[in-house]
Amino acid sequence: MNILETLLLNGISEEYILLILSIPVVATIINFSRYIIGLNFFYSYTILATFLLFQDIAMQAKLQTHFFYGIEFVLSIIVLNYLLFYIFQKIFNQTYIHLLSQRTIAISFGILAILLTIYFGVLLKNPTFIQPTPLILLSSIMIQNTIFNIYRKLTFKDFISKSLGSIFIITSSVLLTNSEEIMIFALSKPLIFILSVVLINILIGKYTGLRISEYIKFYRLLSTDETPPNH
Amino acid sequence: MKLLQIIRNSNKVLGFNQRHAYTDRAKNRSEFDIVNDKIQTKLFLEQNGITAFPKLIKHIDSLNKLNFVNWNTLPKSFVIKPAKGAEGKGIKVLYNKNKKGEWIDSSGSKFKATDLKQHCKDILQGAFGVHSFFDTVIFEERVRSHPIFKNYSFKGTPDIRILLYKNIPIQAIIRFPTKESTGKANLDLGAVGTGIDLATGITTFSIKGKKDYIEFVPGTKLRYQGLKIPYWNKILSTSIQIQQNLKLNIAAIDFLIDPDKGPLVVEINAQPGFTSQLINKSGLKSAIEKVKDIKTKNLAHTLRLSKDLFGGQVEEQLERISGKEIISSIIPVTLYHDTKKTQSLAIVDTGQRTTTIDSQIARKLNIIDAPMNESEYYIENIQIKIGNQLVDSTCKIVKKEKDGYRVRIGRKDLANFIVDIKKVIGHKEQSVRQELIIGMPKTTIKKMDSTLLDINTELANLILPKPLNLKEEKEKFFSSNFEYNPQFTYKPLTFNPDSIINTLNSLNPPDSEIGEIYLKKIKITKKIIFFLESIGKSTEMFTKRSIDLYNDINPYHHEKSLQIVNKHNETLKKKNKTKFLNAEEIENEIKKVMKEYSINYATNIVNSNYKGNSISINHKSKTINIPQSISKSESFTRGTIAHEIETHIIRKINGENQKYKIFAKGTANYSKWEEGLATIMKYIYSKTKYLTSPAIMYISTDYAKDNSFVQTFHKLNELFDNPYRNWVRTYRVKRGISDTSQPGAFMKDIIYLSYADKVGNYILQNPSTLDTIFDGKATPEELEKFTSLKSRIQPKLDINSVREILEVNDLLIP
Question: Which of A155, B309, B588, B683 is 20 to 30 Å from the Cα of B332, by its Cα?
């Protein structure tokens, strides 16, 4: 009897095992997105938290439409937090507030953003509206903490690029972990599945070629034989 | 196909994945710590003798200290930055202060002290640090923009980035602030990045932001290309010096150029971005591949290597800018007519409209099959391959071209070309030229003698560059406590170099041994013109052209020079009684020697207005000038007479009696041999046989080549404690250069030692040369071969004295 069967026989649901097994897949997608595609995104743990948020929404709602709701939810949190930080940064500029105090205020604003998101869901009579679970709250706070951290360091353009990159990864992760073939393989041969994931990550780790984004960036340089003398 | 090309080219471009492999943060932790903290960077630079960085006004590492900052004591203009910041984040450049006490930045935003304090708090709390939670605030002097960039950048100061692999510069860019980037030199914000040719320091391609190629400064017709970056050699040398000590695999070193202080190091980056590849249209990976196994010897070697490997984009760039190909004034062409083709050497003649070909070419192309009856006629449908382009032409056929060139390309066919009269034709073309020039009529020796005499008389007085502001710059140097690098200015050329080059090109010496001597003279005269053109221009170019004329430093003679100087210093301790002669006594000595040789040169004691303390000769007026204030020892005077009269004057007089007049004015390499001989002659009469003065000149030149004026002077001061003599020594090797803060030298002073060695050993190995060596201004070999003198003035030169000099100086070749 293998570990998986033991877990299932002892009442651990298949959904949660799949959720656990999907974490390395998401991490691989993050890895792939950075070193092969060359995407910009929020911190890896924020992405993982957001992915869990999606899955939790799915589990709570038992809905196939959780993906769209998840996107709507995450986007609302990102946009609202950004706007709120923009306003409260103006206030902080007027007077000094300790960094931790700023973070606490940011969390409070973040909660306000979550409340507003749910409120808009109610107003729009969104059929997928659900009660936010502690996991959803935690993930939301991580997202808004990320925004807090990067708000002062990045330009708006960078912020948009990171947001889009993050959403791309989350979308890919949700789609890939919803693929029946992959998850059946993961459940039937969990060890081989994890080893395969490790192998893929080693290969990515050894890749020193150009990233796809760099192929785009350097397209004009790469697509021409025109090279200055002595180079 | 395109995809294949992209994949193939991707091997030349360096991406972030490969960067991580090269930089390897884990292995270079301590170096990363230095460059990631700007205070550490400044300390590191200072410890390694590099003091050219913006002055630190103060730094604050805690909130408590921030509360005690007296903001009123801060200057009107300064910079606030995080010590551990990256990508220019958190930097506030404050340009001025208004009456309300608010500071103003490049975008016009105003900041009260409380605003700046808040910004400092953000920095302290790590708001802009990449890897840190806590940071330090730096208050730094603001570097003003160099006036040369005034029309190129909007408000801010452009910065120059040198990318190095190990210690070899492999790429360089300059970032110009724009209105969009609110005066910041940040490409992400819309600043303009321009590539720099490593060899010349001249700007090449430009890009706005990180993607769009741009040619002109927005709103103007001013091109970003073609701008010469000031202090280029110093920037490269400093970056090499930094990397020699830092030893990162890849580093980007950022400089700002202050109008007074020159280039200042503002930042060292261990993990640079690679947009410079796009800007320079050149991949870094291929550059790294070229240098990764190279071990450089010293700074000068690294500098030369970098320039040789990665320079040379400018000419190509000029072609790209104009869309026209650059060709030389004499160029091999291929002509096509129907199925026939023929090659010929053509002369580009912008003075005529239509291209002409002579009857011989026309026959080869089957245009005519018999000698021409009519004097000339036109033929269409001729294609001429000029450079890399095929031009459809209508040519005029002439019986025979006057100057021997069978094809003369006219304006009509030159629409897509730029003619560079000084462009050197390649080796391949040279051989074609040698084959094809046979058809060109030979110039008579008489004609060549007179033409070359005219040209060289015109150039002779210019070969020793003399600054117009020498006196003022000398005063500045001494009043700065020897820390000021003179900025010399020079008189513009009084002749038209292009016209002289054209005249020289029209000379075709006969195919004989004497013809070879004239051919060499033509070549050296061209080199002299190129050299004269470089006076006061690019230091690097000046040095290169000076080397073309007088050769480069060689380690053997450098080593010998140091030995000679050391030995001489020891002998100085033993003081001898020496009798000094005044001007009148020196004049008598000169007259005595001239009488002995029956030389009719006038002597003239010149008054105190005459600058200098040495005897000079004016061959034109046949006068020897002796300064009134001169005071020289007896042996020195006799040595000078042997140098000036028994060598220079006697060789001149003998040369005038030769069949070929070139021996009076001088063959191609006469001056080096003559100075070597004159040096030997001088030291025969000298009490000490050490070639001290030539050795010091050699050392000075070597120092100057790799150092600024001030550095050269101080190095000489370490050897000889005589600032006034050292000023003269330094000036001698820096004359011709405009900005003496850059390394570079006038190389003439190396010939006295190296050619004393050559001449001395030549005499010992060929004693018979003593019979003819004074017969004219030519090399000993040329004189042995071509002298036509039956009687001559023959100075005394004893072979044993020559041997003694060589032995004492350890220069004797066994």
Answer: B309
